[in-house]
């Protein structure tokens, strides 16, 4: 049962990170800012997502 729950949580986390990357890509931020945010989200998923929610590009 633990593997199934962990797999489901991992899938949900992956969906959230992919959603955040798509939101960054569609934002009005400059190209370099978008690239940096996407790299932060990919290499530091937990911390990057929290920082993105607080400080990331809006819109």
Keywords:
59 residues, mainly alpha, single chain, cell membrane, CLS_N
Provide a descriptive summary of the structure in words.
It is a multi-pass membrane protein. Keywords: Cell membrane, Membrane, Transmembrane, Transmembrane helix. InterPro entries: CLS_N (IPR027379). It comes from Vreelandella gomseomensis. With 59 residues, the chain is mainly α. Helix content is 83%, strand content 0%. It is built from three helices and no strands. The protein has helices at residues 2-26, 31-43, 45-55. Helix 1 (2-26) packs antiparallel against helix 2 (31-43) and helix 2 packs antiparallel against helix 3. The protein is elongated and about 40 Å long. The mean pLDDT is 84.
Low-pLDDT residue spans: none
Report strand %.
under 5%
Helix content: over 70%
Kindly report how far apart the N and C termini lie.
40 Å
Give, in order, the helices and strands.
HHH
Structural class: mainly alpha
Biggest sheet descriptor: none
Count of DSSP-assigned helices: 3
Number of strands: 0
What is the average per-residue confidence, as pLDDT, rounded to a whole number?
84
Evaluate the radius of gyration. 13 Å
Draw up the topology in text.
Layout: H1 2-26, H2 31-43, H3 45-55
Helix pairs in contact: 1-2, 2-3
In short:
Helix content is 83%, strand content 0%.
């Amino acid at each position: 049962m633990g593997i199934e729950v962990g797999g489901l949580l991992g899938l949900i986390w992956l969906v959230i990170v992919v959603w955040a990357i798509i939101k960054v890509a569609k934002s009005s931020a400059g190209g370099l800012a978008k690239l940096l945010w996407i790299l932060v989200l990919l290499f530091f998923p937990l911390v990057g997502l929290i920082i993105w929610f607080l400080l990331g590009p809006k819109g």
